[in-house]
Design a protein that fits this description.
By secondary structure, the protein is of the alpha/beta class. The chain is built from eight helices and eleven strands.
């Protein structure tokens, strides 16, 4: 697959990211914290973004490293970290890097890839590179946790999803800016298991100025046994599989696929 994927995020995505309902309303923090407390520190988060999960871990007393390719997202994370107590700041290290090829010279009890960054890896070579790097960085007895949305077959072909929709309410930011998020599929690529997606930000600034900002990217979709085979190719064994962050079993109607894996033979 040759299609480029700009997983670097424009600055406006980072500016509004934490406030919008798909992020602010996500119910995964308790799950990741429970796994972190069970596994122990240090923790590595790949695709840490603005630090939503990472800082939650650090606030709970866990030492964590966050790696991300997007400088705007890391800048937002740094700004949030500066407002934390010194003890929390001391537990966090941020790394600008590529999750498909990194060397941190440290091993970790837990490696998390939360809220879809793995689905920005369009090519199998990228996916294998990420998992192999993760395996090299896992300490003995360590675990890898990665989540995906469970693919809705309608979103692979149905032209209804090419119409812009706005399922979330407008959100008011602390500075008075109002943002409404809309979304659409711009193109289906079933043979390559990906969709071109547009997130549309309707922004009303405090002075009344209005903007329509579009973040266009390509997102890969995965299926259960495809992920299991990718993990097996990289020396992992799936030890738990959930369909949501309440640890319910994966079913036909589950919104998530959450894989917990460990090194083969460990």
């Amino acid at each position: 697959m040759s299609r480029a994927n700009p997983y670097t995020y424009q600055s406006f995505v980072a500016d509004y990211y934490d406030y919008l309902p798909p992020v602010a309303g996500r119910q995964d923090l308790d799950f990741y914290l429970e796994v972190g407390r069970t596994q122990g520190e240090p923790i590595l988060e790949l695709g840490c973004g603005t630090g939503r999960v990472l800082l939650h871990m650090a606030q709970a007393g866990l030492r964590a490293v966050g790696l991300d390719l997007s400088e705007p997202m890391l800048a937002r994370c740094r700004a949030k970290l500066e407002n934390q107590p010194a003890a929390v700041r001391d537990r966090v290290r941020l790394v600008h890097g590529d999750m498909t090829d990194f060397q941190l010279r440290e091993t970790f009890r837990l490696i998390n890839i939360p809220f879809r960054p793995f689905q920005h890896l369009l090519a199998v070579e990228q996916q294998l590179g990420c998992l192999r790097c993760a395996r090299r960085h896992l300490a003995p007895g360590g675990r890898l946790v990665v989540d995906f949305f469970q693919t809705d077959a309608r979103r692979m072909h149905d032209p209804a999803f090419m119409q812009e929709s706005s399922p979330h309410p407008e959100v008011a930011l602390p500075d008075g800016t109002r943002v409404r998020l809309a979304e659409r599929v711009a193109a289906f690529h079933r043979a390559e298991q990906c969709n071109d997606v547009e997130l549309v930000y309707y922004v009303t600034h405090p002075d009344g100025r209005a903007e329509r900002l579009v973040f266009a990217f390509t997102l890969r979709y995965f299926f259960r046994y495809e992920v299991e085979h990718l993990l097996a190719r990289c020396g992992f064994r799936v030890v738990e599989l959930f369909g949501n962050f309440d640890r319910s079993a994966l079913r036909d109607d589950s919104p998530e696929m959450i894989f917990v894996a460990e090194k083969e033979g460990s």
